[in-house]
Design brief:
Strands 1-2-3 form a 3-stranded antiparallel beta sheet, covered by helices on one side. A hairpin with a 5-residue loop joins strand 2 and strand 3. With 128 residues, the protein is an alpha+beta fold. It is built from 5 helices and 3 strands; from the N terminus they run αβββαααα. Helix 1 packs across helix 2. The protein starts with a helix and ends with a helix. The model has no long low-confidence stretch (mean pLDDT 95). It is 49% helix and 18% strand. Bound molecules: FE2/S2 (inorganic) cluster. FE2/S2 (inorganic) cluster binds next to helix 2 and helix 5. The site of FE2/S2 (inorganic) cluster has 9 residues, from helix 2 and helix 5.
Length: 128
């Protein structure tokens, strides 16, 4: 994909976020904010009996980068095992976004991933 196509994809996910909403019966949920701007993202994951992500939703407010990152992350999470989910790191997110992210916007890009990590850690300790 060209740089323009990545930019277009980000705008598309921002304008038409995939999996936007809330899951009442989520197995894993978490929320967090970007301390630099106060924007917030909440993430909800529902697992099936095989421990795979059956459904995932997010809600919140933020800039184009943070919301596109959250939307793209939810798309990437569907059908994955928890083991695979745990392997998703910053580099993977930046690869999915595909554009150069300035240091100032890095927090925006990584916010959804940070929320996911909080949820995974909490679920291991038995909290939701
Ligand atoms: Fe708030 Fe990007 S400016 S998350």
């Amino acid at each position: 994909m060209s740089y323009e196509m990545y930019q277009e994809a980000i705008l598309d996910h921002y304008r038409n976020p995939r999996n936007f909403g809330e899951l009442k019966d989520a197995d894993i949920s978490a929320q967090g904010d970007n301390p630099l701007c106060g924007d917030e993202i909440a993430l909800y994951l529902k697992l099936n009996s095989d421990g795979e992500v059956e459904d995932v939703k997010f809600k919140g407010r933020g800039c184009a980068i943070s919301l596109a990152s959250a939307s793209m992350l939810t798309v990437a999470l569907k059908g994955k095992t928890l083991e695979e989910v745990e392997k998703i790191d910053k580099e993977r997110i930046l690869k999915i976004l595909g554009i150069l992210i300035s240091p100032v916007r890095l927090k925006c890009a990584i916010l959804p991933l940070e929320v996911l990590k909080v949820g995974l850690t909490a679920s291991k300790h038995g909290d939701k």
